[in-house]
Amino acid sequence: MPAPPAAPASGTGGLSVRDRALLALERRSWAGPGAKERAIREELGIAPVRYYQLLNALIDDERALREDPVTVNRLRRVRDARRGRR
């Protein structure tokens, strides 16, 4: 399955279909090791490394914060905690 397009979808606050798919995948819980990476490859058609690059940029986007504040704020807290440990 090809990756969702990066072009903004109309009426979504400027987020692309791909960006919305990234947030939707990140909202889910995962049964075991490797399940999330498998879903990234199968559902989004991209490598997990690329997924995390896109996600990291996305959580700095205010449009993403407006779209899904709970998920974006959680991801920002996790990222900040990891940076604080380095």
Task: Give a short synopsis of this structure.
This protein is 64% helix and 0% strand. It is mainly α.
Q: In terms of topology, how is this protein built?
A:
Layout: H1 17-27, H2 35-44, H3 48-58, H4 62-67, H5 69-85
Helix pairs in contact: 1-2
Word description of this protein:
The chain is mostly helical and 86 residues long. The protein has 5 helices and no strands. The protein is globular and about 30 Å long. It starts with 16 loop residues before the first helix and ends with a helix.
Comma- or semicolon-separated keywords:
globular, 5 helices, 86 residues, mainly alpha
- List the uncertain runs: none
Structural class: mainly alpha
- Give me the number of helical elements: 5
Shape: globular
Sheet-strand content, in percent, reads under 5%
What is the arithmetic mean of pLDDT? 88
Task: State the helicity in percent bands.
Answer: 55-70%
Rg from Cα: 13 Å
Helix-strand string:
HHHHH
Number of strands: 0
Alpha-carbon distance between the two ends: 37 Å
What does the main sheet amount to?
Answer: none
